[in-house]
Amino acid sequence: MKSLAKALIIILSICNSIGIKAQPKPAFKVVPLGVYGGSDESNLSAYMLAPAGSDAYVCLDAGTLHAGIERAVANRVFAVPADTVLKRYIKGYFISHPHLDHLAGMIINSPDDAPKSIYALPYTIGVLRDNYFTWKSWANFGSEGDKPVLNKYHYEPLVPGQKTPVTNTGMTVQAFVLSHGNPYESTAFLVEHNGNYMLYLGDTGSDEVEKSTKLRELWEYVAPLIRNKSLKGIMIEVSFPDEQPLKSLFGHLTPHLLMQEMTVLGKLAGPGAMKSFPVVITHLKPAGGHISAIKKQLAVQNEQALKLIFPQQGHLLQF
Asked: Taking a C-beta distance cutoff of 8 angstroms, is the pair 260, 316 a contact?
C-alpha cells in the first residue's frame, strides 16, 4: 500500500510539472427532466439537483416530471423505476413562480407522489394554495387551504436571503427575488452543501428592461463565491433570440441581455473569474426555430469565455 501511495504521489508530481492538473471531484449532479419554456408539455422546466454521491434530490421547478424521469431511466442515469425516483429520490420541490410551465408536472403527478415539502416564496405558495390545489381545480394535496386538506405537500415559505435547511438532503437554500415582468415576481435559489453552491434562476428579465436592481443585488451576493470557486455553476434562462422586441419579452432574457448581465457579474467577481465558468442555459422556447438562433448569438457574444451548457432532457450533468 505504501509503494502504491508513493507511486500516486510521483504521478501527480509529474502531471503538475508538465501542466496537467487533476480535475476536482464534482460537488453536485443535475438531472434535467425538462429544459424548454413552452410548446412541448413533455419537456418543460424541471431539474433534479443533489450532492455528488447522493440520491437525495430536490427538484428545481417541476414543469415536467414523469416524462423526464422516464427519459433519465432510459439513459441509465437511474437504475430504479421512475416511480421510485418520483417518490423516494425527490425530497422536495423548489418552485420559482406559479406559471404552469414551472409546476404542471408536480400537479399532474401529485396523486402518485409521496409526502414532501414545497419550498417557495409566500406569493408562489399563495397561488398554489388558492388557485391550483383546490377542490374546484384539482384536489388539495397541500397543507393549507380548501377542506379537506390532504396534507401530502407541506408548504415551506422562504424568507429572501435567509438560509433554510432542506429536509432529508443535507442541503440548504436561500431565495432571492427576481423580476419576471415587473411587478410579477420569480425566484433564484442558491443551494449549498458542504461549502459548495449551485445557483438556479427561475424566469427573469434583465435589470435594464425591468427597471430593477434585483439581478445586480444577486450578482453582488454570489460574486465572492465565484472568486473563491465555491459556486460551481449558474442555471439561467434565455427564452428568445435578440430579434425579439423588448416590449414582447414578458420578463425574459435574450442572448444580448444575458451577456450584459454576465458582464456585470464578471466585473464584480474580478478579472478572469468568469473564464470557463459553467453557465447552464435554460427555458429556451423552441417555437419559431428560436433555439439555433439563440445558440449562435450566445456563442458570438461570449466575450468572457463562459462555459455555456445546453442541457438535454434525461442526461446527467456534473458540477
From this structure: no
At 181 the three-state DSSP class reads coil
Percent of the chain with pLDDT over 90: 89
φ and ψ at residue 117, rounded to 5 degrees: -105, 150
Domain boundaries, the chain: 25-318
| Least confident segment among 10-14, 28-32, 293-297 | 10-14
Using left for φ > 0, alpha for ψ between -120 and 50, and beta otherwise, residue 310 falls in beta
Could you give the CA distance from residue 196 to residue 200 in angstroms, rounded to a whole number?
Answer: 14
Residues 241, 291 contacting (CB under 8 angstroms): no
Homologous superfamily (CATH) for 25-318: Ribonuclease Z/Hydroxyacylglutathione hydrolase-like (3.60.15.10)
Helix (H) or strand (E) holding 118: strand 116-120
Predicted local confidence at residue 288, as pLDDT:
77
Triad 46, 53, 36: Cα angle to 5°: 15
Over residues 29-50, mean pLDDT: 96
- Give the contacts of 84 (CB within 8 A, at least 6 positions apart): 78
Residue in 80, 48, 81 with CA at minimum distance from that of residue 64: 48
Going by C-alpha positions, the residue among 216, 294, 312, 200 that lies closest to residue 253 is 294
User: Using alpha carbons only, how large is the chain's radius of gyration in Å?
Assistant: 20
Q: pLDDT tens, 74-95?
A: 999 999 999 999 999 999 999 9
